[in-house]
Design goal:
With about 260 residues, this protein is α/β, with parallel strands linked by helices. The protein has helices at about 195-200, 205-215, 225-235, 240-250, and strands at about 5-10, 15, 20, 25, 30, 35-40, 45, 50, 55, 60-65, 75-80, 85, 90-95, 100-105, 110, 115, 120-125, 130, 135, 140, 145, 150-155, 160, 165, 170, 180, 185-190.
Length: about 260
């Protein structure tokens, strides 16, 4: 299952059932769980843990040093969950001690070619990163979020669950859950209703999320007032709490 032309450090822990292609390099401190397939010419440095049933394509660079001038060789980590697809030329860096010291990628994510996930980022589950999307350091991406091709996300921003960033979006503030944004300076364009339908949200729930969006973006309410009005919807429609809590807790402010 390991091509004889691959280089695997004796300090790596490779489970049975892992496939590693020719000319790939697996460094010390790397852990790879069963069912994961590593293509040719992949470089993985540790400390990095990669879960089960991932597919990593050729020329990806996984777990290398963070691109941060403050980094001074501290032992930081990368953790990748199960069932992820990581395509050609993807780069995912380890964390820094200025944050939690770890970069995390969850489960069942679809990460297309040339995507960059920087140090200390936290990516949830079931996300899609289209080609050339890039996260700067310390970005958090919620479950089921979609980043269109060439989307660029500024440091410390948060991308809410079930949100959608259009092609070549420039994200400089937090993108709330359920919201669709687009433009070089991201602007809101309604909710991601099609994505919600595909994930089994009922029509009534989608309609109430749309009402919450209108309170936030299409009323004369101040932000705190809009959050208060959104919380009134939570008792009968709990998914609205995700939006209200996110907006109330946004340290950078939201896209508006």
């Amino acid at each position: 299952m390991i091509d004889p032309r691959a280089i695997v450090d004796p300090g790596a822990r490779i489970a049975e059932g892992v496939q590693i292609g020719p000319f790939s390099i697996i460094g010390a401190g790397v852990e790879i769980e069963t069912g994961t397939v590593i293509g040719p010419h992949v470089v993985i440095k540790g400390p990095t843990r990669i879960g089960r049933d991932n597919r990593i394509y050729q020329f990806a660079s996984i777990g290398d040093d963070p691109q941060d001038k403050k980094y001074a060789g501290e032992p930081t980590r990368l953790e990748i969950g199960d069932g992820n697809t990581i395509r050609e030329y993807v780069t995912i860096n380890r964390g820094t001690v200025q944050d939690a010291g770890v970069t995390r990628v969850g489960h069942d994510n679809w990460i297309m070619a040339y995507v960059h996930i920087a140090h200390d980022c936290v990516v949830g589950d079931h996300t899609i990163f289209a080609n050339n999307a890039s996260l700067a350091g310390h970005v958090h991406v919620g479950d089921w979020a979609i980043l269109g091709g060439y989307t660029l996300v500024h440091q410390f921003c948060r991308i809410g669950a079930h949100s959608f960033c259009g092609f070549a979006t420039g994200v400089q503030r937090d993108v709330p859950p359920y919201v669709t944004v687009a433009g070089y300076r991201a602007e809101p364009y309604g909710i991601n209703s099609e994505g919600l339908r595909r994930r089994g949200f009922e029509a009534e729930t989608i309609a109430v999320i749309k009402r919450a969006y209108k309170l936030l973006y299409m009323s004369d309410l101040k932000l705190a007032e809009a959050v208060e009005r959104m919380r009134e919807l939570v008792a009968t429609h709990p998914p609205v709490a995700l939006l209200a809590d996110f907006v109330a807790d946004s340290p950078r402010g939201i896209v508006r």
